[in-house]
Amino acid sequence: MNINQEQLIIFKTVMETGSFSAAARKLGKVPSAISMSIANLEIDLHLTLFERQGREPRPTPQARTLYHKTEQLLIEMKQWRQHANALSAGLESELNIVVVSELSHSNWTDFLPVLAEQFPELQVNTFFAPQEDALKLLMNESVQLAFMFEREQLASSEQFVEVNKETLIAVAAKNSALAQYDQVSYEQILQSRQIVVASRDRQLKPELLFSKQNWRTDNHYTAGAMILRGLGWGVLPLDMFKENPVLQKQLKVLKFSDFTPNFEYYVDLVWSRESQLGAAARFLIDYARQRRQAIE
């Protein structure tokens, strides 16, 4: 069976116009070409699609059944061709993005609708990881892009554009020892167990580590649950705290008496200058830059 797109278009047009001659006029062809195309299609399918009795051909039940499938098939063929053209023009087969765990509550998803509109057939995969693991995934090219907190030191291969600013807060369970103070000192923080979101690689030091003793987890949801149980204090996203009534009722935001840690961070869209980026990744970077310029 060797059915091509033109045959399907002709069949669809005959069904919609009701005759070979009307279909020929609509498609700019001679009626004999339409008739021959339909006849070849019937041979290929081993079906009679039209009863040729009277002035105009009458579609058979089999033709009506196939007609309902034809339009969708033509749409899929068009999408397939567009995607093939995009791939040949440099579109990656899939785009992998990692998001730092604490940013799951942020507006990083604002970037996805424009990506879906521009590249509707693109496979997009998103992952969440602690800051240190996100950077590793980017550097070993497991992902092409990363939404990350600003870094104190940049690797020579890193490039980035700022996309927004996020705030973290220090919290402890209201029944914990730290929560009984209006303000806590650096020494108290140092001697209290911290629940820290960190890489699974124990050799990597977490960036937001203050206490001598710490328990580690790779996501802030687990960290929040552990803090609620009074197992330690920790740093959580402000948006997570605002959106969760349980956290607001059972956690206390810690205030510090003799030091002021910086819990407000810029969020960057990061990529590696050593990676060969595809069209979708480059489009998202350009969009982030334009969005940043519009804000300024």
UniProtKB/TrEMBL annotation:
One Pfam family this sequence matches: LysR_substrate
Gene3D superfamilies on file: 3.40.190.290, Winged helix-like DNA-binding domain superfamily/Winged helix DNA-binding domain
InterPro entries per record: LysR_HTH_N (IPR000847), LysR_subst-bd (IPR005119), WH-like_DNA-bd_sf (IPR036388), WH_DNA-bd_sf (IPR036390)
Single GO MF descriptor: transcription cis-regulatory region binding
Keywords: DNA-binding, Transcription, Transcription regulation
Sequence intervals crossing the membrane: none
Occurrences of domain HTH lysR-type (ranges): 1-60
Coiled-coil regions listed: none
Family stated for the protein in its record: Belongs to the LysR transcriptional regulatory family.
Name the record gives this protein: LysR family transcriptional regulator
Biological source species: Acinetobacter larvae
